[in-house]
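User: Here's a structure from my thesis project, written as structure tokens. My advisor, Dr. K., wants to see whether a designed sequence matches the one we expressed. Can you design one independently, without my sequence as a hint?
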């Protein structure tokens, strides 16, 4: 057996390298981070398998009875055993609507973060590597957008889409509009971060060597520079996931999100808010607690990842 073959066979596998990495060491020695990861995983799995674990289908009109509306949680005096967290104004099981609502909230969050990341990273790479007028135009657009709050930008995009599509067609494209509105609100952070990292990486020897052998700029940017600037991008994406979920909930609470027939967590909170002071507190409290726990768990993971990837804190 040659020395190269022996070296390859002696190299630990990917899973073993992950277990031996400094990142995993930092993860397992942080009880708060482990707890956040477990809570996040449970909520994501509950949302994914909602059709299986949900006691009822809140989107099936045949399984909903208006006579079952406003039942309190099962442990209350007037509660029903079949509705653990009670029912809402339409007779839908609150637990089931939370599980299905998390699917929509998480789907919008992940899709909008992916859109913002792709757009921001691409523009940041181009701005930092090309420079000149291109850099100036992209960064000035980013500076202008930073003057507007993310929720205001999302409301503006949502309002334009609503006006162009009309009320009937809007309900069919509302998911895509939410993803576009939230994604276009968060791309600036990625672009500015990636641009700063590219300005540092562009003068390093491996980039100069790639230019010397005649590689195209687009190849250098995406094949050589991009892998070296992904660390901060992953941190921003993790933190922005919680922000995207909260932004979607805010838009839905304001009445410009998904329709009440297929509610997200924000829509459930808005519906329950109308009955909060009349005694039906469970309709809004339980979705609100779920949203808070989900956002907090993801935020704690983002804070840990930021600290773990910061070389100054090692």
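Assistant: Designed independently from the structure alone:
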């Amino acid at each position: 057996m040659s020395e190269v073959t022996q070296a390859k066979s002696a190299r630990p596998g990917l899973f073993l390298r992950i277990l031996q990495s400094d990142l995993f060491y930092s993860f397992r020695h942080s009880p708060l981070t482990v707890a956040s990861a477990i809570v996040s995983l449970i909520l994501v799995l509950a949302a994914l398998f909602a059709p299986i674990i949900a006691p009822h289908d809140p989107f099936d009109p045949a399984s909903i009875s208006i006579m079952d509306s406003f039942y309190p949680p099962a442990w209350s005096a007037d509660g029903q055993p079949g509705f653990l967290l009670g029912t809402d104004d339409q007779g839908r099981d609150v637990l089931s609507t939370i599980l299905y609502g998390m699917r929509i909230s998480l789907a919008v969050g992940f899709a909008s973060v992916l859109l913002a990341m792709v757009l921001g990273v691409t523009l940041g790479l181009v701005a930092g590597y090309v420079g000149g007028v291109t850099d100036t135009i992209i960064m000035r657009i980013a500076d202008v957008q930073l003057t507007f709050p993310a929720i205001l930008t999302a409301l503006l995009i949502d309002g334009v889409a609503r006006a162009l599509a009309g009320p009937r067609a809007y309900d069919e494209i509302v998911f895509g509009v939410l993803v576009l509105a939230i994604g276009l609100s968060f791309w600036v952070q990625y672009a500015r971060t990636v641009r700063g990292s590219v300005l540092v990486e562009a003068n390093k020897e491996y980039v100069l060597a790639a230019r010397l052998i005649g590689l195209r700029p687009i190849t250098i940017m995406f094949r050589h520079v991009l892998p070296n600037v992904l660390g901060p991008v992953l941190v921003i994406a993790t933190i922005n996931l919680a922000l995207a979920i909260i932004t979607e909930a805010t838009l839905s609470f304001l009445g410009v999100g998904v329709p009440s027939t297929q509610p997200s967590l924000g829509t459930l909170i808005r519906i329950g808010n109308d009955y909060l002071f009349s005694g039906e507190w469970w309709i809004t409290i339980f979705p609100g607690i779920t949203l808070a726990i989900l956002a907090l768990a993801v935020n704690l993971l983002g804070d840990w990842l930021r600290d773990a990837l910061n070389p100054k804190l090692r």
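When you compare it with your expressed construct, this may help: DSSP finds 14 helices and no strands in the chain.
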